[in-house]
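Module 6 notes. Inverse folding takes a fixed backbone as the condition and produces residue identities as the prediction. Think of it as a translation problem where the source language is geometry and the target language is the twenty amino acids. Below is one complete input and output pair. Work through it position by position during the lab.
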């Protein structure tokens, strides 16, 4: 599968991504450690895909990076800042998170869903928030659907609204957790194309995905996690064509 951009890249903005560095992270639910000494560095403007079996800790790791669940030990650096010392609200403005479920307000249009976030978080005026919301919706190829409510949009379009809402915060890093896994198969490609486009435009991205074709084509680095640890990390060629561990070989034999 090839990824064609919804917009010619030259027409799009370029992003100024920041470096994200996770070192020796440990996270637990109660007494059970589910992230055990994880270190991952994502260079500015690059995409790292995290793959691994269910329950390996992928979602928990992303939740730790933007502090929806506080890590127990280790460090997370965003550019030159200690992400674990920033105010969580400020951190979440700098690190966008897109989930499987889009959590849009059903009674508001696509435009208002994005604009409301700008007014609430960035304290913008109504006019300014709507102007920027329309620009971000245009960026995700949805300008013509701006006045539709979520129920009148396809799942893929709703996910693109959620991505536009995250982009509106001008994040330095974007985290994606299975952003396409709730979508009907025919809608997956449009969202993956958009994510590939963001990667091409210099967004720093940490992407949990089951889409191995996407990881192979778009990732600069692929990280394989199992049982809360990084088992292997490398380029897509290294991970997919020359896996070193039995665990990764077994995983790939099950998913490819
Ligand atoms: N809120 C929670 N309370 C207790 N344990 C949890 C909680 N959320 C996740 N876990 C456990 O933590 C471990 C890691 O879960 P996590 O959701 O991070 O895995 P995952 O790799 O994202 O899996 P999947 O591919 O199924 O989404 C699992 O053993 C899971 O059961
Ligand atoms: Mg998960």
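Target side of the pair, the amino acids:
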């Amino acid at each position: 599968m090839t990824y064609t951009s919804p917009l010619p890249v030259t027409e799009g903005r370029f992003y100024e991504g920041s470096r994200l560095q996770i070192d020796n992270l440990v996270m637990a639910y109660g007494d059970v450690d589910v992230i055990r000494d994880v270190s991952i560095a994502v260079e500015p403007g690059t995409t790292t895909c995290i793959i691994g079996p269910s329950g390996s800790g992928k979602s928990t790791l992303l939740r730790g990076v933007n502090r929806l669940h506080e890590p127990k030990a280790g460090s997370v650096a965003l550019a030159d800042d200690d992400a674990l010392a920033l105010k969580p609200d400020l951190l979440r403005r700098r690190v966008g998170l897109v989930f499987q479920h889009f959590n849009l307000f059903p009674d508001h249009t696509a435009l208002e869903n994005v604009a409301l976030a700008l007014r609430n978080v960035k304290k913008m005026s109504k006019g300014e928030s709507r102007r920027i919301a329309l620009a971000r919706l245009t960026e995700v190829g949805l300008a013509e659907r701006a006045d539709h409510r979520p129920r009148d949009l396809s799942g893929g379009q709703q996910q693109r609204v959620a991505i536009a809402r995250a982009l509106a915060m001008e994040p330095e890093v974007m985290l994606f957790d299975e952003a396409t896994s709730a979508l009907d198969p025919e809608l997956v490609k449009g969202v993956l194309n958009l994510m590939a486009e963001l990667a091409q435009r210099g967004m720093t991205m940490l992407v949990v995905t089951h889409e191995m074709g996407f990881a192979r084509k778009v990732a600069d680095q692929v990280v394989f996690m199992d049982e809360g640890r990084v088992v292997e990390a490398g380029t897509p060629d290294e991970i997919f064509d020359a896996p070193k561990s039995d665990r990764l070989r077994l995983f790939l034999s099950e998913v490819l």
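Reference fact for the lab report: Residues 58-59, 177 surround magnesium ion (ligand 2) (CB under 6 Å).
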